[in-house]
Amino acid sequence: MSDPLIRVDALLPAEIARRAEEVGVKKASLDTLSMFALAVLAGAFIALGSIFATSVTAGAGGMLPYGVTRLLAGLAFCLGLTLVVIGGAELFTGNNLIVMAWASHKISTRALVRNWIIVYIGNFVGSVITAVLMFLTEQYTFGGGVVGQAALATATAKVNLDFTQAVALGIMCNALVCLAVWLTLGARTTSDKILAIILPITAFVAAGFEHSVANMYFIPLGWLIKQFDPVFAAGTNLDLSRLDLGGFLANLVPVTIGNVIGGVVMVAGVYWFIYLRHTRQHPA
Asked: Does 212 reside within a domain?
């Protein structure tokens, strides 16, 4: 007869909320060096998902319908968050859920902001280092140059978004990313976690939403190709005039704002209000 105290099913939403609080406290309590190193890993992991997505869809535009191509990109990009969650790393967008612990007065504002700043910088470092390494591999020349064509097209599209559009796309993106992380908190096994990741992450990529950490890879890689292989870049016949530092910041700033709104307000804030507002600790 099985032990009635042993549960193999997923956590219920109220239990996930309490688990999110506990995880938030642990994340905010990491020492600076460990937090930064884990954030560098996360930036590299999301870049690996970006590489996979670009590689499997390069050159498919003329052969497959738009939606099918985006679906394939989304499925491939799931590699990134799978590595973050299963492998263990600190991702800025997912760490927006730490707000639940902050709202319950279990961590301070200083601890929350410290985590976000260190993790954001670490994500940037990991993403950019991966972009540099990928440029040095010259993998963008594979397939007769279709990989590089896809990389430059992606980067160019991102730097040409207007501010309001980028914010809105960032909101929708991180609502789905944080929902994916939320679902993994209720999972019991590695397989459960991977399955929980697939649909939300595939949806955000397929829909064309904007993820700040992924863009820390996509745009620098495009800029590196433009800057250091101008012959290849010119052969793509793309308008690369905005693919520079100004264009990068013009994308990264509003997308980051949108990501924070999507994660903090649409996921962490809503679930905290529903399940945790009555358990809030009173500050000393």
From this structure: yes
Q: Dump pLDDT digits (tens) for 227-264.
A: 999 999 999 999 999 999 999 999 999 999 999 999 99
Residue position matching structure tokens 């990741």 = 197
Residues 94 and 180: their CA atoms lie apart, in Å, by 9
Give me the domain span that covers residue 21.
13-279
Residue whose C-alpha is closest to residue 46's, from 77, 69, 90: 77
The answer to whether position 177 is within a domain reads: yes
Q: pTM score, two decimals?
A: 0.95
Whether 282 shows a pLDDT value over 90: the answer reads no
DSSP 8-state assignment for residue 282: P
Supply φ then ψ for residue 257, to 5 degrees: -60, -45
Closest alpha carbon to 264 in 127, 101, 107:
101
Output the six-digit token pair for 97. 């859920």
264, 164, 255: which is closest to 213 by C-alpha?
255
CATH code: domain of residue 260: 1.20.1080.10
Number of domains in the chain: 1
Question: 257 exposed, middle or buried (CB, 10 Å; 0-12, 13-18, 19+)?
Answer: middle
Note the pLDDT of residue 7. 63
Angstrom CA distances, 272 to 103, 265, 276, stand at 8, 10, 5
CB 24 within 8 A of CB 102: yes
Distance of CA 14 to the CA centre of its chain: 25
Q: Go through 72-89 and write b for each residue having 16 or more CB atoms within 10 A of its CB, e for each that does not.
A: bbbbbbbbbbbbbbeeeb
- Among 3-12, 63-72, 182-191, the minimum mean pLDDT is found in 3-12
Residues 95-113 have a mean pLDDT of 98
